[in-house]
Amino acid sequence: MKYIIFLLLFTFAYAQPLPLTPQEKQIIQAHPLTCISTGLWAPFNLLEDDKLVGIGFDYWDLIRERLGIEDGCKTANNWTQVLDAIKNTTADMTIAAQATPERLKYAVFSKSYAKYPMVITTKNNVGFIHDIELIRNKVIVMPKKYATTAILLKHYPHLNIKFTDSIDHALSLVEKGEAFATIDILPVIAYKINKNNFETLKISGSIPEYFSVGIMLRKDYAMLVPLINKAIDSITKEEKNAINKRWIMIHRQQKIPRKYFYALLASALFVFTFFSVWLLLLKKEIIQKNRTEKKLKKLVNIDSLTGIFNRHMLDATLDNEIALVQRHGNPLCVIFFDIDDFKNINDRYGHKVGDFILKELSKLIAKTIRKSDVFGRWGGDEFLLILLETKEGDALIFAEHLDKVIQEHHFKWDISISCSFGVTCYKNGDTRESMMSRVDKYFYSTKRNGNNTLKG
Q1: pLDDT tens digit string along 7-19?
Q2: Residue 182 contacts residue 193 (beta carbons within 8 Å)
Q3: Under DSSP, is residue 214 helix (H, G, I), strand (E, B) or coil?
Q4: What does pTM read for this prediction?
Q5: Is the same domain home to 334 and 346?
Q6: Domain end marker among 296, 325, 358
Q7: Domain GGDEF spans what residues (predicted)?
Q8: What is the spatial order of strands in the sheet that 454-455 belongs to?
Q9: Which of 58, 245, 278, 334 has its CA 20 to 30 A from that of 305?
């Protein structure tokens, strides 16, 4: 009874109609809205007792009451039906959607009434994922035609994404171990995990992108957007908090009898103090461990003289990129090169000068290449450059550019150097060994033809 009274008072206080001009009222009357939605995207839209409810409908109720729009929304079997209905103008709007390039061809959108982070869901035994690139080779399942999927494909096209029919199916595949992760917005994941008792799943991280939710209307109803935006602007912080509390805060805490309160408080303070000290000591230990791991990683993967990747890291990277090429078919090339007559520099100026030339050349190349390229020292005065998403013609042009940059650079002691280059690209069935054998063959062909040449 108290809850009903609260809702009545809340509605009376906040859902009052907005003052509209006669022209604005005429626009609303001339455009009666046929709403369509699914009950498949809890907690934004779901079916309870054969009625559509959720975060989206709570916001829509506030908007339509302020504008004097009648209630009512028909239920679609899936999201594709919703989009088709708006595209074909058999329905006029839906209450919770985000704009995508494809949808903007036939629809318009209000400003967002809510914005939520997108989170990564995995099994409980997976650690914290601070960067989505850590799971680029894992299977990620995403629902087809969802805006969250479009966001992921736009910003992370290289991810190994498999498609499914719904977020519920995606979560079940992760639970069964048939996929590593799925990604959706925080309220949806939190609601689904709790409601469907996915006890083996958890939120393991997030991505930098956010999901903004607004009202989607057929394109020829664009004149309603400013009015809907006006209603959205009138929604108060208290109203938003009430909606989030209703749908995102799944568990409620029961009242504690007063006689137990102080005993529980004292116990809580003791536990808090104990764990604070323990966490402080643990944090120091983790920091020291991370420093040690970074040093070890650097020793394993970084060339100690030049500070760029070493042979071990280049081998591992090339193996990994070849595997991705075999899966996705993206182009991949390598450039192998060395310093012409480097022995003469060591003999004439000494090994310290030779080491300086190697370091300065490494810095020069590192400044010239793209961020996506992988550059390292193969050994001695030999270097390898791995070019991702690069076709053979572009790789040859880039090798010529590197040659020019090196020849025009003024090294210390007025030493001028040139390099010889070999270039090759991935061919069907290639392994790291076959690619390196082929580029090595091209490279030594340039040596036989005279230094400062290029072969691909």
Answers
A1: 444 444 445 688 8
A2: no
A3: strand
A4: 0.48
A5: yes
A6: 296
A7: 330-456
A8: 374-379, 382-388, 332-339, 419-425, 454-455
A9: 334
- Using an 8 Å Cβ cutoff, are 63 and 57 in contact? no
- Considering the domain architecture, whether residues 53 and 77 belong to the same structural domain is answered as yes
Tell me how crowded residue 227 is: count the other CB atoms within 10 A of its CB.
Answer: 21
DSSP state of 414: G
Q: Hey, how many other C-beta atoms are within 10 angstroms of the C-beta on 438? A: 19
**Cα–Cα dist 83/91, whole Å:** 9
Task: Band the pLDDT of 130: cuts 50, 70, 90.
Answer: confident
Q: Is residue 302 part of a domain?
A: no
197 to each of 165, 175, 189, 237, how far by Cα in Å?
A: 20, 11, 12, 31
Same-domain check for residues 42 and 72: yes
What pLDDT band is residue 1 in, cutting at 50, 70 and 90?
very low
- Asked whether residue 358 carries a pLDDT value surpassing 90, the answer given is yes
198 and 319: one domain?
Answer: no
- Number of DSSP helices (H) and strands (E) in the chain, helices first: 15, 17
Q: Report the C-alpha gap between 102 and 142 in whole angstroms.
A: 18
Q: Which residue has the tokens 């070019």?
A: 387
Tokens describing residue 28: 């609303």
Structure-token pair, residue 325: 């090429």
Catalytic residue among 58, 381, 403, 430: 381
Tokens representing residue 364 in the block: 């020069």
Domain shared by 366 and 451, yes or no: yes
131 catalytic? Reply is no
Strand partners, 419: 339
Hey, what amino acid is at 350? G
